[in-house]
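Hi support team,

I submitted a single chain yesterday and got back a structure, but I'm not sure I'm reading the token output correctly. Could someone confirm the output below corresponds to the sequence I sent? I've pasted both exactly as they appear in my results page.

Thanks,
R.
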Amino acid sequence: MKLYCLGDNPQSSCIVVTFNNLNIMLDCGIEFSSFLNFLPNSPVPPIQNDSNASESKDSSPFKTIGSSVFIDGTIRHHLPQLDLVNMSTIDIILISNVYNMMALPHITECTEFKGKIFATEPTVQIGRSLMLDLVTYHNACVNSDGERWASMLNHMSGNLQSAWNWKKHFTVQDLEKSIDKIKPVNYLEETDVWNQVCVIPLSSGYCLGASNWVLKTKYEKLVYIADSSLPSNRHPEQMDISRLHNADVLILTHLTPFPAAQTEQIVTDICSVLGNTLKDNGVVLIPSYSSGLILDLLEYFHQYLGSIGLPQTPIYFVSPTGEHILGYVDIISEWLNKAKQERAFIPESPFLHSQMIKNGSLVQIPNIYSDAKITAPLKNKMKVPHLIKEPCIIFAGHPSCRLGDITHLISLYGSNPKNCIILIEPDFDHKIALAPFQPLAMRSYFFPLDPRLSYSDANQLLQELKPKHLAIPAHYVSHSLPTKTNSIVTDIPTSTFKHLSSIKLPLTHKYKSGNISQYLATFIQPRSLNTVPNVSETYSIDTIETLLSTWNHRYEMNTPSLSDLIRLSTYATHGEGVLGDHKLDDLLLALYQLGIKNVGVQSCKDKDKGSYEIIIEKGIHNVNAKIKIAQNETTIETEDEAFRKTLTDLIIKICSPNNEKGKKSKHIGNYKKKKKKK
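Hi R., thanks for writing in. Yes, this is the structure output for that exact sequence:
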């Protein structure tokens, strides 16, 4: 079993594993932290002040603010390194939560991926809304420099050197086509994929529909844990560990980068800042996603404001899809925690936001230019919207402070020291996020709200789950003074991986399930063995001579024909199987002599050294085929079984035993490319 990490940072959301002859991609997120390399793409032209007036005259699309260099141009998406993998070979994509699926339209609409995609229903619906938010923010941007920066990257250094590979944002059409390709599944639902592997999603407790995945065959079990949360007082269904035990391999990722942070204490601190600001008639800005933490914070703030005598303080929720999300989460009570499920059975709305909307304490606004809510749209003048009553709390996206209405709201309220901005998303550097808006008179706070597993939680969980082998990012064990609160400390055999690394995991397939043909079964006559003393079970046995065939990873034993028996006798002369070396040139010559002339050879970049693919176009009977030659196996791919047998016989014919130094090679079909001498 192999694991490839395609993400670009330790918390990256894209891993490819080979499991039971299938290539499975675990998540496909966008590196949102790369947004911080850009200046804000505001929906309206920003106000010029003295500090940036001189910069505006600079024709360069790269602006230096403090010690950081920012791109003044259209924001692009930093995707996982998908070009390092042949996407046509990916069989399955498993999505763990709404934040780890943002690159999906780039995959389904811009690559040769033809496999299956699985995610829970809330992940599909809410993920669609968050991606629609992203498209809406991009389409509303005003940026005169546009894409000019992309042609000037050769003059840059550091992180920006890799920006040439970042992609333009997807369209609404690409988004909808991508979503249509996802197969929704329920928690604990077992889905059999091509009779090769069974995939099962379990609640991770992180957000609505968030999942950990169990992948199992009859003999092996792989567990993928990502973005999991243990607290039971949050709105999602509690984390389910019922089927995570005793895995052959457990992949653990996405622990909180703030292991010492206590969520309850942070919420208390936020509420304290909130109360002081509102009592001073200030405005509180909170950049956030349209789902996730905001669903908990709306209720916390509503209860807190009531406790300090400010129950009618308005909370504004600015989001293109906010109305849809608030309505949707009210009708999926089966995906919520037990307390909210019980409220739904009363029947009452499981969330308090429905009541807040009715009494006017929560106002949902698609954008700050909505004519339905704001009588004086903000265009070139910085005016406070008439229907935004101060003091108030405003949630708006994007949490990077680079897209969406939040970019304009910071400029609008940033000059008043009575106001404040609270950054809560842990994956964005708060200092860099606010750097383009400086100087700000408003107060800024960074309270990273991250309910994901800490190192201490993970160590305790691993002790209970007892996997046979563990795979984790390398920085989880790289602490100079490791303890259970700052590192993964375990006696479980562990493999670590880094960005763009490839590691082998000790998951070997000892057994395969197969079938016996009906005709062959009629010749089987089991004979009882002598029973073991004091043991009631009896055993039967028979010997058969059979031909084992494989087709699309399915195995079947059939009665061998006369020609098969002759071939089997040939195999037997080589000992355990078809052994030895044969040269690539010999194989190409044999194909030519067979009349197959349209042949191409290419190296496999994502395989071991010395691996090749022989591509045959319109071979015998105009049938296409592909021969994959690796160090330990040779695979023939074709839709024509007769052509497959022809190619098999040809390879066996030119394969000669390798008895060098008295040792037989156990390599099946080991092709070596002959180097030409100059």
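A quick pointer for reading it: Confidence is low (pLDDT under 50) at residues 46-57, 371-384, 574-579, 657-678. Let us know if anything else looks off.

Best,
Support desk
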